[in-house]
Design brief:
single chain; two-stranded antiparallel sheet; 14% strand; alpha+beta
Amino acid sequence: MALGRTAKYYRDNPEARKKHQDYQKTYQKSPDQVAKRVELNKYNRQHGNYGNGDGKDAAHHNGVITGYKKASANRGSKNDSAGDRRARGSKKK
């Protein structure tokens, strides 16, 4: 499997990678993010999907868990919010 654009960038720029990892470490400790993970893990356990290796994650839409999506696609929808659109990027025509 080929590396993505971001993976290549962080591989070639270790200072940027460290800065990003430090930020993520702080961000993921925030009470909102901890609560979100707790909610999703609970949902996955209740539905027998926790750690079963099927490659799917519980998906949110408008702050509500809507079911399961392929993990690679569960990175935000172009319809959900501006932040999701920025995170996913857009296809060049």
